[in-house]
């Protein structure tokens, strides 16, 4: 694979691209490129039609860049180009984020007075765990006297217990050890 510099004016957006690029995303991409440089090339077919990188091209044009790094895939059929384009737009959606690890990373960046906006998270404090919604049978685990659900969990060690305690508490559940 060879990366070449091409004029932005030579690159052609794919007319039926299924990924929309709102201005807020383009602004964040442009800021990333301006601060960190260019580290993900645009991928085009033999006719210089974009396979991957429509948003990056818009960001480059916003930055008034005349050239950008490009990979020319002249070895792909039109069907392979379309499949690659669709997959590129979908694959990142399948990935999951480890919320706790992300929060630690964002906290560390904040402590270092780093511009959190460069992470594409507008508000690092808004990163939250997904809602906890247990799927329980109607009467199982119910404390008949107090009308509450009671969950008993056994742990291998105190550290594991404390981690779950804080996770459940942070999700808004009333927990006690």
What does this protein structure show overall?
This protein has a four-stranded mixed sheet. Strands 5-6 form a two-stranded antiparallel sheet. The model has no long low-confidence stretch (mean pLDDT 85). It is elongated and about 65 Å long. The protein has 177 residues and is of the alpha+beta class. A hairpin with a 4-residue loop joins β5 and β6. The longest helix is centred in the middle third of the chain and has 17 residues, at 78-94. It contains five helices and six strands. The chain folds into three domains: 3-94, Conserved hypothetical protein from pyrococcus furiosus pfu- 392566-001, ParB domain, CATH 3.90.1530; 96-128; 129-177, no CATH class.
Radius of gyration: 24 Å
Helix content: 25-40%
Largest sheet features: 4 strands, mixed
Please tell me what the overall shape is: elongated
Count the beta strands: 6
The CATH architecture name of the largest domain reads Alpha-Beta Complex
Low-confidence stretches: none
Number of helices: 5
The first-level CATH class of the largest domain is given as Alpha Beta
Strand content: 5-15%
State the distance separating the first and last CA atoms.
57 Å
How many domains would you count in the coordinates? 3
Residue-averaged pLDDT: 85
The CATH superfamily of the largest domain is identified as Conserved hypothetical protein from pyrococcus furiosus pfu- 392566-001, ParB domain
Structural class: alpha+beta
